[in-house]
Here is the input.
Amino acid sequence: MSEEKTEEEKRAAGYHGGSVETVISVEAVIAQAEQLGDGVSVEELDALVTDEPYLKIDNLYAGYGKMEILHDFSMRVGKGQSLCLIGPNGAGKSTILHSIFGFNRIFSGSITISDADKRMDVTRMSSNQKLARAGIAYILQDKSVFPDMTVEENLWMGGYLMDSTADAKIAAERVFDKYARLAERRKKQAKVLSGGERRLLEISRALVMDPEILLVDEPSIGLEPRFIDMVFDILDDLQHSEGKTIVMVEQNAKKGLEFADLAYVLVSGQIAIAGRGDDLLQNPEVGRLFLGG
Here is the structure.
């Protein structure tokens, strides 16, 4: 047998069929990503938003303990828009979600929600306040369901801030009405669900409180391709049919950019590039560093 490999055999496993020649170290990605741009102004971020900004971050410095991860970070998302955050590991993507939801330390800066009906500074609110008062929900990465509880009980847990158990059960029924796949499995323990069904349950549990803003952390992680498509179809429906505003972190950069209206490339706690998702998808440097080709 010939030792010469075909082109197909030379291709490396990874995102979207990138070849072995395109695989570079994380350190090299960070170094090269830092050369992508000289930063993005607030005016440029504002220009990307439909109408007025709904969720705004201004001059945020945040991190964990004494460690600062985000440096003078600003962000803009319009109501009903979606934003995908991509970048190398350690760039601060999940830290942005944690800051919005109250999972980490904010040194300075502000996070606000504003539209025709309200203006609310949520910077120092607790996570419970952000969910109950500001309508911000966090959809965690994989394995956040309660495996020994039934699907039904998991959904009831999503209403833990409601005034009564009865209210939570009524809200859960609305979710079951929307997702027949879960309704059919309502009495089954969550641990017997497929990976895609568990992710649907995680998303659905966040919907029990009827939030306006969804913070979605790595929706495709650990899923087979058919379930990845299902999850993004669900998120698309929540955005375009129900008007949810979505801020997403996604390592599957191609899928995230295809989905989102807006996208930021983060490097070392700051924005290197900001643009429409479709535009970044066509950017050759973004493609080389994050799309595998």
